[in-house]
Amino acid sequence: MPKEESLPFWKVNVPEEQWPAECPDFLKDSSEKDQRIIGTPDEDYKLLTWPEVREIVRTDRIDKFHRKPSELRRYRAFTYRLVKGYGSIMNFIVNERLQWGSMQPQGGPFKFDEDIRILYNDWPYGIDPDIVHLVVWTKFELEDDEETGLCTAQSRKEIDDYVQKTFATKVNELVWFKNWKSLKSVHAVEHFHVMLYRPDRDFLKDITNGDVPMTAKFE
Fold first, then answer.
1. Which alpha helices (DSSP H) does 95-213 contain, by range?
2. Which residues in the chain show pLDDT less than 70?
3. Is 5:11 a contact under the CB 8 Å cutoff?
4. CB atoms within 10 A of CB 138
5. What is the pLDDT of residue 27?
6. What is the spatial distance between Cα 193 and Cα 138, in angstroms, rounded to a whole number?
7. What are phi and psi of 7, to 5 degrees?
8. How far does the chain reach from its first CA to its final CA, in angstroms?
9. pTM (2 decimals)?
10. What is the C-alpha to C-alpha distance for residues 64 and 88, in angstroms, rounded to an integer?
């Protein structure tokens, strides 16, 4: 059998008896970056530790967050199927995950609970299993600086105040970040990310209303 390193990227992390004859459709338009990640054996991939996660967020280098190779492959298969079935990832998020009949907010940022939904990140990054990755979805916009694509001072304060009120009273260690526009996989629905270190499971069940991430459901 050839060494795993010499395999085409689309065969890596796949049992030999399941190797496809050619590159699957869901991987055919993979970027060079995705090909490099997917072509890395899982055993050679190093999960990010909590101190590393905190440093990435502190220095705003969130481009360093990547999914574990086999998870990125599954994510690509999942989103390919989504677009076929729902037309777009956004349609799936709004109709199935958020179940929002209307995207019209009742008021300004963080004024009404009905305008906010907290769910697990369906396809979390390659991080220590003690770190829980949540996404806070909102019907209202959180202003970005037009030049930098980053949060304005006002929206950063609004998010931080909400995070402190909602999570910091229950979890000792946490970070939050909002993706740069260039890194967002879902552009049409506002959201930001919260990572919690060793949170209480009952708190998670309550705050997410018993949510289960799609990675735990996708075959």
1. 153-163, 201-207
2. 1-5, 181-187
3. no
4. 18
5. 97
6. 11
7. -70, 150
8. 27
9. 0.90
10. 26
